[in-house]
User: Fold these one by one.
Assistant:
Number 1:
Amino acid sequence: MENILKAELLKNSEAILKKAHDLSPSYQSAMRNAQLHFDSLGIPSKKNEDWKYTSIAKNLAPRFYDQQESIIHDLPKNIIDQRGMIIFNNGIFNKFLSVLPAGVELDALCIEANFYDTFDSLNFGVALSPLSLKVLKNTVLDFPISIIHLVDDVGVNKIISPRLTITTHENSKVSFLEFFTSTSKNKLQYTTNAVTKFNLLPNSQIEHVKIQSEASEAVHIGLTEARVDRDAIFKSMTLDYGNLTARHNINILLNQAGAQTSVHGLYALKNSEHTDVFSTITHVAPHTTSEQLFKGILAGSSHGIFTGKIIINKDAQQSASSQLNKNLILSKMAHIDTRPQLLVHADDVKCSHGATVGQLSKDEEFYLESRGIPKEHARRMLCMGFGMDVILKIENLAIRKFAETMLIETFKSGALLN
Amino acid sequence: MIEIKNLHASIDANGETKEILKGINLSVKAGEVHAIMGPNGSGKSTLSKIIAGHPAFNVTEGSITFKINAKDRNLFELEADERAKSGIFLGFQYPVEIPGVTNFTFLHEAFNETCKFNGAPEMNASDFRKFLAPKLELLEMNESFLDRPVNTGFSGGEKKKNEILQMAVLNPRLALLDETDSGLDIDALKIVAKGVNALKSRYNATILVTHYQRLLDYIVPDHVHVLYQGQIIRSGGKELAFELEEKGYEWVIKEFEEKNLTRS
């Protein structure tokens, strides 16, 4: 598949760049460079330590989505507040349906030359509709902005490449719900290769909740990246409700003193679903803090992977970081690999980490049963509670409610608990 | 109401089977309060857990019958949740913490499951909140307890009050209170006792499992039983509790062992 995709890119390189005619010549040449970068790196195999548990090449879609215009006209469901919505259809920004609230404006596109990985390069090289936004100084929104990525039939067998960069200026505070989904939950086969990058300028705050709910046969590769400046706060939550294969790359840089982040998440997997979370938090500057709680619920023959890298640079004295990965295994066939990786180069820091893998507690089950709640119902409540513990960390109440409803739906389907 | 006959039970631990109860006989009638006392490791907690249906124990001999709708039912035919919905309540010595499930959801689900089982109408969330208000007041609990995860971060006293709140919601016919007084300061103990006493009626019964006599100053038993090495070695009225408080368990145990010696 690697060769097919490379050949496909080589064949279509010119055509893709031609379709990018709205973009500036310098941006187009950066795209060309990114394509070459992807070509030289290729698709990682399991020999690559960072991809040890996921063979990503085998299920990737063989073609690039290369239409420029969005053809979806109906507002997707799942919008939680119509005052703020950014809609991508098959990776193409839909400017007709999107609504930017006051204080959020289009920004100049950033010409990038340094990429997180091969998929970031690929995305930059083929994304025909990159979007860059800025949140103006002092903008504080009490309603969330929904970023909806919707894939429909036209996206079948294609690589969907949405690219979004958001810069928040001083004293702004915004919550985003980024939702990846499709018009049909079951049949569609496609690959999303999404990149969402945040630049938090000093004293700004972002809450970003990503929900991966792609079609069950889809592959999702997504990068959430944030550069956090002085006294800025980035709160990240990644919720994965399962599909064929998902890889979440999370890359947070605490760039200046006083920068803070929380990088939480939950994966709730069933059947043969496969989700690989690869999180990197780098404390670059002193007095920076990070906390992380990732939980997993694994049923059926699903496979979850959590890699949590915490890097504390030599200069990042007086920094604090805590990490916890807790997994609930509901079946004998389910599997979890958890890898905490701490690289601490400073001596005056506080770090803690832990990982647990366990089953539902018999004592907890009996406690609920002794109150009249039947065993099946008790187990469902306990699993829900295990997940809710993470969801309750979402600050924006509308987003929290939405995430909670999705968790309940996931459990209603029953597949998690048979 | 409940009739325990020659109950033997064991637990499997570390590949070994250990017999914990060795022939318990106990009969409790509606309106009565029984106290089961005894030194640590005598099997007190096991007895209450077996009545409530804890899966860790194997009943090897004997029977427990419980009156449901005026009929004697074999308790072992009922799952733990069915026993609860039929009117048996176990107040835990160590209430379990359940992060992520709010107290309100927990109580509401438990209440509605019980209503459904007994053919009574279920209650919606807002009515249920109103239904809870006087019960919270009785136990001097703040309404904010409802929105916190079950027992998570509760103090020892708060956990025990929360047990009695659950009891007040489920209104059982037989309440088994396992070491409800442990870990309580005197103020919390008084509140818990006030709650238990308020829920007492001539239609329900209470079995208090306790190591100390202290609780019995506030909840007065009609009958006191001493459990030792899986057997009830002595029964009496409330004065037995005072005697135990004064002289300790040693003399009862000694008397029991002497009796056994002469028998053999």
Number 2:
Amino acid sequence: MVPSVGFGLPSGVLLRRTAACSVASAGMDTLIFGGLLATWLVLYRQRGRTLLLVGWWVVFGAVALLLSHHITSSLGLGLSY
Amino acid sequence: MASTTAALRGAEGAPLLGKVQYWFACLFAVGWTGIVCAGLGVQFISWDYPCPLCVVQRMFMLLAALGAGVIVRKGMTGSISGRDYMMGWGLSLVACIGGGFTAWRQTMLHILPGDKGYGDPVLGLHMYVWAWILFMASVVAIGIVMALAHLTADREIPTSGAYWILGRTALWFVGLIIAVNLVAVFFEEGFNWFLPDDPTRYEFFYQVGILD
């Protein structure tokens, strides 16, 4: 019932994993938490409203992209509404 | 533009009530960070690996906490404008809707009778169901607080004593838990681009050869 794609196969709505992604790098989840920490720093150090908003929305957009990647079947799931 | 930055009227005659939004923002930031801590507790005490949708929900929770953090941080400077209140609650609302959608999605994946769900139930419900309930409750709470802004949103906030100490503590708590999640998800994800749908180990330690 739950699509068990694993992390070795391309999946998702927008993003596809390619063979080129074999270089060691931080994953998307890690980068997003890094972005959250950076946004927290901008907030705490009061680096400016614009920078804070840009950081927050960039992170939000990245989270939305990650969510879209993990939605691998229809939103309706074959159920009746 | 000037009307959004003007002092909110009506709260000057109720000094204690006028600080309610500042305190609620502190509670909101600490509360959502505390919920993420509960997830970390299940992760490391029950040794339950968070799935990708679980991690996405944590991200939305922390985004919501940062929205409230905007109000807290401005309060620590002694002054919060209407624009600051709106910005903070606006960001939190958007994050709660995103988190609510994610929790709804995860709930629906396991909605059919006989499905055991992902992870063990906590207090009778799975964590993603609790998350959906709390995201929706937060939306309602923010709406109530904003509707009563004429009473609860003072422009001037004391910068000494409990106001400053608790505000600073709340912000540092949010920052600390973001950092903990950064490390934890790095260990679980390793050098892969995405988490697996059903994680069974901390990939980093196997990728660098610490574990076989």
